[in-house]
Amino acid sequence: MGKVKIKKKSTLIDMTAMSDVTVLLLTFFMLTSTFLQKEPVTVMTPSSVSEIKVPFTNCTTVLISPEGKVFLSVSGDADSTFSSEKVRAELIQTAVAEYNKTHSKQVQLTQEQVSKFSKLNMFGVRIADLPAFLDLPQAKQDEVIANLSDPAVGIPVDDNKDLTKPNEFQIWMRAIYNSSNPNLEAAIKKGEGIAIKADKDTPYNTVHDVLDNLQTLKMNKFSLLTALKTEND
């Protein structure tokens, strides 16, 4: 009796469905991921064993460069009601209005300049120089910020205690605290709304002035950003 021939099955696999799933997964991860934002300077934070994570939303990051320059980054809610752009647009208008109360040379902003500021992840120029800075294209703005020897770069900070004549760092921080976003104020009160990121070579005097200013403003709870210590550290 002859052998029964087994009918060969086709090895062709329809990959259409798998391609659709791959595209859907890729789209999902792109929409839900939080991308690292560009910072004006590279800061090497000191090491620690703390594993507490700083939130990405409703948080103010104070970046202090090795040269002692201070920059700020402000984020709002993940939803559209108090989004980061809306919070920043309100912030710059509040800060400029406060600045104009104590300075004879008034700063005026156009709606286009306010809109440009709202899209900045991190900022750090004197308030008087903001209009000219915001009129520059993005590439030129990056060049200005990268020039850390320029006295106009960095938010001015000193050991001022007189809040009737606040320095610019105090103006910005008070404007952040008084934001119409209640979650931002609540985060600051809980100690989760302010994160300080300083380089291991940052001058102590600048770090001291920043911490002293926060205490003067009654913002006594904040986080210090560090790198997780490894077995070799």
UniProtKB/TrEMBL annotation:
It is found in: Cell membrane. Keywords: Cell membrane, Membrane, Protein transport, Transmembrane, Transmembrane helix, Transport. It holds the Pfam family ExbD. It is a single-pass membrane protein; Single-pass type II membrane protein. Signal peptide: none annotated. Its main location: membrane. It comes from the Bacteria. Belongs to the ExbD/TolR family. This is Biopolymer transporter ExbD. It comes from Heminiphilus faecis.
